[in-house]
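WARN retry 2 of 3 for item q-0093 after timeout on previous attempt; input resubmitted unchanged.
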Amino acid sequence: MSLKLSAWVFGGVAFLLALLAVTWRRDGGLPVHATVAVDATESPISPPSARYVGAYTVPLTTDSNAIANGSDRVGQVLVASASSAEKAQSLLTLFPQLPAGAQPAAARHIVNLLPDIAYASFAAQLTNASASAEVQAVIYADLLQRPNGIKLPWLLALARTPGISQSGAAAGLLQATLRADYGANWEAWSERIDAWLEAHPDAAELNTSN
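OK item q-0093 returned
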């Protein structure tokens, strides 16, 4: 009797355990070897899809790339088989197309190559309000090394142009060179420059080839 009771109890327990296992699976439990299908878009750590990347990735051209491209174009002119004057003219044509960051370096090449006779073609940047201060500084430094026949008239042009950083320095240099001060009487300044140049001609003719 005792043996039969034990067998009955053991069988009942086994049946309950099996019933619980089936119930657990029906309630949403997963078999050990089941495959889980998860939507990647719902996972906080899943990588974005190609379409997502395409929607948010915009190719950009950086300033550094534009400057590098401009420098390459300047380099092509410098290594070309041409005279210094011809290279200067090519750079003058290219100059307005260059990004602002590449213009100061190009300006240095231009003033190094530009002959005196063609100086006005680039010196006009000195009084151009749209020119950068860096470019104007390059041209001004070169202007001080040019013959008086070029230097003095352009110093006058600078002195009479407000808003240019070299304007005050140009006026002071005119006063020191001509030993005169006509204030804002630009016509008097111009006449004084003409008289001074006639009395102090440049030692050599203007450089035509540089």
